[in-house]
Amino acid sequence: MFFLTHIWLIPLLPAVGAAVMLLFGRKLQKNSVSAVCVGTIVLAFLMACGAVREYSAWSSTAEHYRQPYQTILYTWLGTDTGHMNYTTHDGSPAPFQADAGFLLDPLSSIWLLFVTGVGMLIHIYSTGYMAHEGGYYRFFGYLNLFMFSMLTLILANNYVLMFVGWEGVGLCSYLLIGFYFHRKSATDAGNKAFIVNRIGDAGFLLGMFFIAWYFGSLRFTEVTHIARSGRFAIGDPIITAATLLLFVGACGKSAQLPLYVWLPDAMEGPTPVSALIHAATMVTAGVYMVARSNAIFVLAPASMKTVAIVGALTAIFAASIGLVQNDIKRVLAYSTVSQLGYMFLALGVGAFAAGVFHVFTHAFFKALLFLGAGSVIHSMSGEQDMRNMGDLGHRIPTTHRTMFIATLAIAGIFPFAGFFSKDAILWETWSREGGAYRFLWYVGYATALMTAFYMFRLMYLTFHGHPRMSHEAEHHIHESPISMTAPLVVLALFAIVAGWLGWPHSLGGSDRFTTFLEPVFAPEARVLQEEGRTGQLVAGVEEEHNTGTEWMLMGLSLAAAGAGWGMAWKNYRHADKDYKEPIAVAAPPVYNTLLHKYYVDEAYDYVFTGRRKLGDVRLGVLGFGEGSAWFDTHIIDGAVNTAGWITRLSAAISSWWDKWIIDGLFVNGVAYSTLPFSWFARLFEWGLVQWYALVMTAGLVGFVFYYVYH
Amino acid sequence: MESMLHITTLHYLVLGAALFLLGVIGVLTRRNVVIVLMSIELILNAVNLNLVAFSHMWGGLHGQIFAIFVITDAAAEAAVGLGILIAFFRNKETINIDEVHLLKW
After folding, report:
1. Could you tell me which chain B residue has the CA closest to the CA of A682?
2. pLDDT, one tens digit for every residue, chain B (105 residues)
């Protein structure tokens, strides 16, 4: 039980690494930086493995059967003395309190394992990728800080501590996107990510307050318990509001419509960062949060529908943009947004396990794709534009092969990882709620076709066709060092086998992944069924009945993947310097719209940021910016100026009064009026001392004569 | 002849009156403050002469002691007067007594 009781060490280890790097890193050699930072993550990964092992043993005992493991170190926010009580919606007092507490259940186990595992591989990869870069210690310090925040987010046992980790990963994302801070585009991208995430975070906070007010607690276990106790009706408006607000937070962090705009720009960061933060781990935090709150989400069908529709729309929207992008990392970025949309689609239709399964498989193949792209960029001396690549396949064979595996996985080719998770999602979308969500299946299916197309387009443009780079760049092409290729190989292995954990029943598997997650999600299925909201009944009969349909859907999505592959093969196999984009040939306006990302950034600049003007009008935040500026200059400043004018006017009057009435009339007037009476007295004042003396003497002589002759 | 050579009290009084008159004329006519101060000294010494003369006539010492007081007083007055004079000169760059009319009105 050592690992389980000391689970707080898992986030603490990277925190120590980060502290060492950010305080003393500048003085350390690169070797020691790598040793400390990779070492902490390796240790964290080993401890995570130990903790999950111990947890599965612990939760299989009769006493704690399927219970979440929770350990509370202390209360870090609020007290238990009753001084910080607040009143919940029904008037009963509840203490406002957040623990430094850690929760391990199947859901957090999955995140814990793949975050530390993929994180470890990416740390190792970074030692090779960043070897020639400045700020080596800073990079690893931020990376460790990110791991600390992410693990806090995952292991938190309440919304407040989760929010701390949530903000921490946002901060690290900002710092790492802007890692090349001498490039203006990088710092701008960092700001954009940070600011867009603030919008989501505001939603998360408000949702959290709603939950505190309505449930009287912020602990996941207690909120879940109350939500499942039947105290609240399904469709409760407050719960709907709370879950919608939480979903706004998830939209920000997980780059869903309409807050996805920061993620493609986040590719300005170093490629390992894109792999770790903006593909595998951080962007799935929104999925984690919604899955963690599944008990309250199922009480709000409107929110669930919103999640599903937003997810599906994001999936097809981002995938269609990805079809025509030329920057290798941007294609992958839009692919990430699109895959995140799939995950939310699954959550929204109530297939939480399928959504989490896709997070799990996606973490491996998307991290692999990004690391492979990093390896390509590394070998191309920093070139990211696929139009200048081509024919790299035999020059960097390891990168080529591993990326090919990842492409097969994301395109959903049997039996690679993505096939199982994507088909689980599509199947659940088709069948859940008696087919109520079936229209979203078409969206998801079209997305699958697009995914296969843009991924194989990336592969053919990069690794096949004719070389289109400059001779100098061609001369420098080299396979990456072992520290970079080894993680690729390990991830490729997982991109193949990770999906097998969820081998569906219809193909003779046992879907162990869903079974593993049952303690977290199963009660929802019961709630749904008891309320009669679902046409699906308990597994068994119904499932056998539908196996034929499931096979058919699998066949269809395999056909879509094959079709996408075929189209890419046909158009890009022999791509030379003057190759034509098929969409540009067929429909130039569509191509331009897609290339400019539906002009969303421009629209946001017009409507929200105010960086562009509509004619002479600058809207900014829907006109609030310009409006409040006008209000400020005209009303507020006008009031201030008026007050100033009034003061000046009264001062002028008062000054005039003082000068002419007080001083003039009363002071000088009195003096001047007495002046005429003084003229006679003034005649005696010559101002000549000797005249006074003479008068005095004459007077004296006069008196003497008077007394003598009187 | 005998009686002509005998100096009586009257002689002292006449001399004192002459000195006094000279002093008064000096104070009233001269424009230089220093000369005015010196003339005042003449007046004071005329008074001293009268005091000593009457003291001699009555055979008492009171008059002579009083004369010494007057001399002391004259010294103090001269010091204060010259001090004022220097301050005045610093302000006006002149010691013409006609210029001392700041407090005229």
Report:
1. B105
2. 455 677 888 999 999 999 999 999 999 999 899 999 999 999 999 999 999 999 988 888 889 999 999 999 999 999 999 999 999 899 888 888 888 877 665
Tell how far CA A304 is from the center of its chain. Answer: 21
pLDDT for position A472: 83
Residue A500: is it exposed, middle or buried by C-beta count within 10 angstroms (0-12/13-18/19+)? middle
Nearest Cβ partner for A690 among B28, B103, B104: B28
Q: What is the H or E stretch that residue A94 is in?
A: strand A93-95
Of B27, B98, B105, the CB nearest to A693: B27
Distance CA A325, CA A391 (A): 19
* Other C-beta atoms lying within 10 Å of the C-beta of residue A388: 16
Alpha helices in A464-481 (DSSP H): 471-476
DSSP A236: -
pLDDT (mean) for A656-679: 89
- Kindly report, residue by residue over A23-41, the tens digit of the pLDDT: 988 888 888 999 999 999 9
Number of separate helices (H) and strands (E) present in chain B: 4, 0
On whether any CB of chain A is under 8 Å from the CB of B93, the answer is no
Residue given tokens 């960097």 in the structure block:
A396
The whole-angstrom separation of Cα A152 and Cα A147 is: 8
Cα dihedral B90, B91, B94, B97 sign:
negative
A693 touching B, CB under 8 A?
Answer: yes
Q: Which amino acid is at A507?
A: L
- Two tokens at A305? 């529908």
Distances, alpha carbon A309 to alpha carbons A14, A304, A306, A411, in Å: 37, 9, 5, 22
Q: What is the ipTM of this complex?
A: 0.83
Can you give the pLDDT at residue A522? 64
Touching B: A residues 669-688, CB under 8 Å: 682, 685-688
User: Span A239-260, mean pLDDT?
Assistant: 92
CB-CB neighbors (< 8 A) of A685 in chain B: 104-105
C-alpha torsion angle, residues B89, B95, B96, B101 (rounded to 10): 40
Prediction pTM value: 0.76
Cβ contact A521:A430 at 8 Å:
no
